[in-house]
Each structure stands twice: as structure tokens, then as C-alpha cells.
Write a structure and sequence with these properties.
With 256 residues, the chain is of the alpha/beta class. It has 2 domains: 2-144, no CATH class; 153-254, no CATH class. The protein is built from 10 helices and 7 strands. It has helices at 2-8, 26-29, 35-46, 93-110, 115-125, 137-150, 154-165, 195-202, 212-235, 251-254, and strands at residues 16-20, 56-59, 87-90, 171-173, 181-184, 187-193, 240-245.
Length: 256
């Protein structure tokens, strides 16, 4: 990996490369505070050999074959077609900034791993590797934004992106018939409606008694959508708090 990256951008060889020899679902890598990368940086800073020139550091399983926390991938998120192996480049701030800018420009277009690197990963992880590519964290986020958009989750991605890149921001998902969500302080508050409250909030005076069957189906779809959005948020490490809204008063106000 160090050889591949150094061939792409001048200056990489003068930085330290730290990686974790474990792979994760993208949602595990894209979490507020960047916990995988932060832990990698902590281990790099404590590793022996500082001051002796740039190092390549890899952290993986122990002698018993166990990967220490927090580098144990979540079993519930296993099985996806895209897996992420986190790494960090570290060094003097000015050098890192210059390399980071160049990587942002080049990696998405030119960041294919060399064939022997991909084969080593395939052998090491005993997994079929069809396509191995280097990405910056921003590249990965952009890729996931496109996937979520294609899956009808583009509006939810705005909350996830805010949690990642602007943790002090307040972000809403308020676009009926979608569930009502508010992101603040690293967690999401989701309005939990009973049938009457849901009908009042989303349909108001337009609801008719003879629409009961249609409204019941729509409400059941709404509940399934709530579960889907909550599962995606929690996969990204964003806690979801449910706030009961009975249809009396402003539901938005109850989420604040």
C-alpha cells in the first residue's frame, strides 16, 4: 500500500503510513468523530520507533487470531459488496496538508491498487477481491451519498454528512411523507406518531373517513420507513431517540 500511494503522489514516502489489517462496512468507517481513524492515529503515536524516519505500521490480529477492539467489524454489517480497510498518513502538518490536497485530486480517478496488492489482500483476508481502490474519506462519503441517493435515502444522507463533517450543525429531515427527524449534538430525534397523530401531521383536515384502508396502508409503510432510517443511522453510529407526538401541537417543536 505504501508503494502504491507513493507512486501516485509526491511526498507520500516522507509520511508515516498506519493501517489496520481488518475490513469494515463503509458505515463503520463513516461515523461521527471518525473512531477507526482516530484509534489508528492513537496507536501510531504510541508505537515505538518515533524519530527514526517515516514508518509503515500495521495493526491486526494477535497471536490467538483475535482482532482487538475497536477493530472488530460488526457481524450485523457483514456481507456487503463494498468493504473498507482504514489507513492514515501522518507527519508534519504542512507536508500532510500538501499530500492530502493532491490525494483529494487524484485518488478517485487514479487510485486503483496494483494487482499484486489486491492479490495479497485477497489471500490475507481469504475473500474474493474484484476491485481494490484507494479513496480519501471524502471520496468514500461521496460514493456512499450516490448509493444512498439511488436507494431513495438521499435526504437521510444530509443528516449523516452533517454528523460527520459539521458535528455542531442542526439538520432536519422534514419532507412528508418521510419521517420527521432532527439531528443535533450527535444524535437524531425522531417523531414517533400514533395513527391519529400521524394522520393529523401528514394529512390534517384532508383525511376522509372513507380513506381508512388507504391511510392504514400508508401508516404501515411509514412505520417501516422509520425502522429503515433508524437502522441506517445506527449503522453509522448515530443514536436515535424517539419522541412521542400525538398530533396535538407542533411536532417540530417537540423535537427541539
Amino acid at each position: 500500500m505504501g508503494r502504491d500511494l507513493a507512486a501516485l503522489v509526491n511526498g507520500v514516502a516522507g509520511l508515516e503510513l498506519a493501517l489496520v489489517a481488518a475490513h469494515f462496512d463503509p458505515a463503520e468507517a463513516l461515523r461521527p468523530g471518525w473512531p477507526l481513524h482516530r484509534r489508528l492515529e492513537e496507536l501510531r503515536a504510541r508505537a515505538p520507533g518515533r524519530g527514526q524516519g517515516p514508518r509503515v505500521l500495521a495493526f491486526g490480529a494477535d497471536a490467538a487470531g483475535q482482532v482487538p477492539l475497536p477493530f472488530q467489524a460488526e457481524a450485523a454489517l457483514a456481507g456487503g459488496g463494498l468493504r473498507v480497510l482504514p489507513f492514515v498518513l501522518a507527519g508534519p502538518q504542512e507536508e500532510v496538508a500538501s499530500v492530502a490536497e493532491a490525494l483529494e485530486e487524484k485518488l478517485l480517478a487514479l487510485g486503483m491498487a496494483r494487482p499484486d496488492t489486491a492479490l495479497l489482500a485477497q489471500d490475507g483476508f481469504a475473500a474474493r477481491v474484484e476491485h481494490a481502490r484507494y479513496l480519501t474519506a471524502h471520496d468514500l462519503a461521496a460514493m456512499m451519498a450516490m448509493q444512498y441517493e439511488n436507494q431513495g435515502l438521499g435526504a437521510l444522507w444530509n443528516l449523516i454528512e452533517a454528523a460527520l463533517l459539521a458535528p455542531q450543525a442542526v439538520e432536519w429531515l422534514d419532507a412528508g411523507p418521510e419521517p420527521l427527524l432532527r439531528l443535533e449534538d450527535g444524535h437524531v430525534r425522531m417523531a414517533l406518531f400514533d395513527p391519529a397523530g400521524w394522520c393529523a401531521h401528514y394529512h390534517g383536515a384532508t383525511a376522509q373517513a372513507d380513506d381508512r384502508d388507504r391511510l392504514q396502508r400508508a401508516y404501515e409503510h411509514f412505520l417501516a420507513r422509520q425502522r429503515q432510517l433508524a437502522a441506517v443511522l445506527e449503522a453509522h453510529g448515530i443514536p436515535v431517540l424517539y419522541v412521542h407526538c400525538d398530533g396535538h401541537g407542533d411536532a417540530r417543536a417537540k423535537l427541539q
